[in-house]
Amino acid sequence: MSNSSSAIIILRMEISHDLVRSPAMQRGNYNKRCAIISAATAVFVRDGYVGASIDAIAEEANVSRQTIYNQIGDKERLFVEVVRGINEQGSARLVETLATFPDAPQDIGRELVEFAIRLTRNCLCDEGSRALRKLIENEGSRYPELFETWKDYGPGKNWPAISARFARLAHDGDIELDDPDLAARQFMALIRADLPNEPGATVSDAELEQAARNGVRTFLRAYGKRDAALAL
Amino acid sequence: MSNSSSAIIILRMEISHDLVRSPAMQRGNYNKRCAIISAATAVFVRDGYVGASIDAIAEEANVSRQTIYNQIGDKERLFVEVVRGINEQGSARLVETLATFPDAPQDIGRELVEFAIRLTRNCLCDEGSRALRKLIENEGSRYPELFETWKDYGPGKNWPAISARFARLAHDGDIELDDPDLAARQFMALIRADLPNEPGATVSDAELEQAARNGVRTFLRAYGKRDAALAL
DNA sequence: GACGAATTGGACAAGAGTGTCCAAAACTCA
DNA sequence: TGAGTTTTGGACACTCTTGTCCAATTCGTC
Q: Which of A183, B172, B204, B209 is most buried, judged by most C-beta within 10 A?
């Protein structure tokens, strides 16, 4: 990845390569490959790019170091593979969660709170997202390509989908807003505002529900019709 | 810092030590020491703890490597010193900015927007805060003491001061809220929601003002009296 | 069981970083 | 100028990491 433009090409090639099922995945070494990438994810997340050693990854994967070089290649290639994996998982989870957005709410307050809880649990609090964010933030300056890929394949891709949901709510008269994109950003910010932002902190269900309720209440005070926020 | 409890003791000793002016600062090597810590800050922020090399720091400080070992000690000691420095600066800036909170506003909307702009510029957008956050996030798992110190000396210390300002606004009848702490957290989240959250992004004055206006407008829609948000 | 492919573990060279030691040079202050 | 301190740069031992090579072993499949 010493060359800035070559790495992103490699990354994209890998993605399409994967869609047609790489030969490596059809044969028996698929499990080993999986174990390696999974272990690499854990170690990269824990120690960062520089701090992660191939030996540590090999040990975590219960695999010889040579196998890593056989299966994937060098450290950069491994890193790219890890980022791609986290990206795909996170993106899938976001799409999945977004499908449960309350499109035609009976009780908009309650349903938005429940959606916020799901969103936080699946996409914001989850380890993968935090980890990717951290990796991108750390190595992004050294490998700007990762940053680009993050914007293309990461959570950013799905933001328009979120704001579209709010636009629909507004169109149906459930809320009142002029800028759905802004509303979506503020919704995310508000339900995140009340969560502990320390890296390793675990959030109990009760805390999570309280945070979601607080965020949605303020959101509906600002954008809801009539007394939508009062019941919360 | 191999021992968990010893490091924080060292850190705290250094702080009190500094208040009575360490002998090192009284003599001529004060400038060198400053240059070293300043350079170390830059390099640690750029490359992280593991990625930063003493040689790179020495070069950045225009100082021989041996001088670093003479003046400060080993790498861990240097790191602690850097975190302390960023902490103190950030804390001071926050207190300073907080002093300009509109206590008796004529035009609450405009004055809150202006305060939000100052807060963002001085404390949220600023390089030191982002850098410290990043360092803490990265090395926090390896050095839990840093995390503790961050909570004690970092921005968290001043949150009660922020919510006290909002409580006063509410008491004076300028806004309506029941939980000042919650309101303060949401205020911060809202004015942050509209900023680009990429690490190295620069924010223009226009973007900053727009973001502040958007955040304050929603805040006042939720918590303001009468039509306080309309003018924005 | 036998063949081919994958895996293992150990050895290896090359490079980089840490921390120490030391003698020469530069600086400070009287 | 001179004594005492600081700084410098180079040499050094030590450790860790990366990536390659290779022979022995294991595994999958026929």
A: A183
